[in-house]
Specification:
Radius of gyration: 11 Å
Oligomer: single chain
Structural class: mainly alpha
Largest sheet: none
Number of domains: 1
Strand content: under 5%
């Protein structure tokens, strides 16, 4: 269950739950493989949660063309 960030806030940044899932999974894999983090402080201990926090904070830039 997602508590933070809220699903409503995330869906303001991404157009669908499917896209949100795909983007967060790809970002989590990138963080795990490259040890590359954007934010200085995270609430979540897991990479997927951290990816969702980056999306909610608008620090992760999403290319709309990559979603198609």
């Amino acid at each position: 269950m997602i508590i933070y960030p809220s699903i409503d806030k995330l869906l303001e940044k991404v157009d669908s739950k499917y896209s949100l899932c795909t983007i967060s999974a790809k970002r989590a894999k990138e963080m795990r493989e490259e040890d590359n983090y954007i934010l200085s402080d995270y609430h979540s201990p897991k990479e997927v949660g951290k990816a969702l926090e980056e999306i909610a904070s608008s620090d992760l830039v999403i290319d709309p063309e990559s979603l198609t």
